[in-house]
From TrEMBL:
<feature type="transmembrane region" description="Helical">
    <location>
        <begin position="39"/>
        <end position="60"/>
    </location>
</feature>
<feature type="domain" description="DUF2231">
    <location>
        <begin position="34"/>
        <end position="168"/>
    </location>
</feature>
<dbReference type="InterPro" id="IPR019251">
    <property type="entry name" value="DUF2231_TM"/>
</dbReference>
<keyword id="KW-1133">Transmembrane helix</keyword>
<dbReference type="Pfam" id="PF09990">
    <property type="entry name" value="DUF2231"/>
</dbReference>
<protein>
    <submittedName>
        <fullName>DUF2231 domain-containing protein</fullName>
    </submittedName>
</protein>
<feature type="transmembrane region" description="Helical">
    <location>
        <begin position="131"/>
        <end position="154"/>
    </location>
</feature>
<keyword id="KW-0472">Membrane</keyword>
<feature type="transmembrane region" description="Helical">
    <location>
        <begin position="72"/>
        <end position="94"/>
    </location>
</feature>
<keyword id="KW-0812">Transmembrane</keyword>
<feature type="transmembrane region" description="Helical">
    <location>
        <begin position="106"/>
        <end position="125"/>
    </location>
</feature>
Length: 174
């Protein structure tokens, strides 16, 4: 049978993380004019990861060798800017107490590092033979990369819109 707690006992059951003095200290430190650099940069790997997938699909449909060249460049730039965005996000994660203390931030970090490995693989796999690499493995890696980008990007949005991570304290509703 479930144990019944009195109102006084229930009042003592608090979340130690929410109670922590650092919990509300979430303001971005790696920012330009108050706007987090990470949020500015992630748009590029997100768009380019989907572009690689699209270019592979176009090659499959048309057989035109223009598309594997597009995919090679898109994969390389997605990986390069993704790594730089990851570095800014990681500095933020380690430096800002209210970001560091939340488990959701670490979940985003783990998702993002897995994604960056897939983006790197997608680029490296194509370097020697961009055309031959597309079917079937390049296309499959692109599909995985696009799916993981969707999940990581959605989760990054959750950090900002649900937990107000990276936002200024004085503008936040209490
Ligand atoms: C590798 C380590 C990463 C860390 C530690 C990290 C950390 C963070 C943090 C702390 C935020 C909150 C905003 C801020 O303070 O800047 C954030 C937001 C976000 N992240 Fe990451 N991130 C990483 C990589 C990535 C990657 C690779 C992507 C996607 C390609 C991504 C997508 C996003 C998105 C879409 C947001 C929401 C931005 C907004 O709507 O303003 N992150 N991330």
């Amino acid at each position: 049978m479930r144990q019944k707690y009195s109102w006084k006992q229930r009042r003592r059951l608090t979340d130690p993380i929410e109670e922590h003095v650092a919990f509300s200290d979430t303001e971005s430190k790696i920012a330009f004019a108050g706007h987090p650099l990470h949020a500015m940069m992630v748009a590029f790997p997100i768009a380019l990861a989907f572009s690689v997938f699209g270019a592979d699909g176009m090659y499959w449909l048309t057989g035109d060798e223009f598309w594997p060249r597009v995919a090679l460049w898109a994969a390389g730039v997605a990986f390069g800017i993704g790594v730089i965005a990851g570095v800014t996000g990681t500095i933020e994660l380690l430096m800002v107490p209210g970001i560091r203390i939340r488990s959701a931030s670490w979940t985003h970090f783990i998702l993002a590092v897995m994604l960056l490995s897939v983006l790197g693989l997608n680029w490296g796999y194509r370097l020697d033979d961009p055309v031959g690499a597309v079917l079937p493995w390049g296309f499959m890696i692109s599909a995985l990369g696009a799916g993981m980008t969707g999940i990581t990007g959605w989760h990054g949005g959750k950090l900002v819109f649900d937990y107000q991570i990276g936002t200024k304290q004085e503008t936040r509703s209490k």
